[in-house]
Amino acid sequence: MDYNELGSAGIGVIVSIGDKIPCKRFGKIHSRFEHVLNFHLDDHIVSIVTSKIDAGPFRIVIDEIDLSTISEARLTLDELRINHTFKLPRNTGRAYNSAWKSNDIDIDLLHDNVLRLKQTLLENCSEKSICFSLTAVTYRNSVTPFDEELSKQFQQAYSKLMENDSLGAVDGFRGRGYGLTPAGDDYNIGLLMGLKIRQQCEKKVLSNIRSSIYTHSLGNNLLINTFLLQAYHGWYNENWKKLLTVLTGHTPEMENVVKSILAQGETSGADTLTGFISAWELQL
Predict the structure, then answer these.
(1) How far apart (Å, rounded) are the C-alpha atoms in residues 243 and 245?
(2) Chain segment 20-41, per-residue pLDDT in tens
């Protein structure tokens, strides 16, 4: 079969391909949005996204393409084939490396920067997010009985975490909240990321607690399971790698990076950051 080359026409150029995406056909669509097209990949998700979305281990970023026209795709060693009609050469984009290395970390500086991150988050997060759990205030968006009860459950789960009942906390957050990726699940993802970074930077033995949290956090939501898999293994999206570089370096550029993460979904970025910061408040 002959394929037309989109790339040669200046349309649909690959920007990056995630390092955890296998050469495979993707034909079963999970969900579709303006800038994101999610396909089933076994027990998780692989995504084709526009350049409005940052690179990631399970993301193929393509510039100047209408995702609504895509019904299937096949990734090979040489190209990305779309709808049995077009092909995009792989060599037009970079291979995205989702790993993050920690070398010569100043632990005191890192801890100071996590405190800066917390303050930056509280100054910029939406009132609909669960970043309130990092403060002594009550949920600021309790406009319905459901919201009020949800806020109580989040507060109880956070209290359990601070009492070192990590699995009780994870159970309290899991699946709770609105939307395709509920706030409580985003929180657990951030918690796993924070513990992974603490293990790397503080040289702590946290494999058992991370493994238990990961297992207890899994559910039937394939998007959440994908993000949990990334968090557990330390496979980061590009904006998170930028944040980790800020946290471990002498740079004041925190606010812009945090705002990039906060732009992910209505509250997903804020809720994930809340979980990440919570990991640093644990006495381990």
Answers:
(1) 5
(2) 999 999 999 999 999 999 999 9
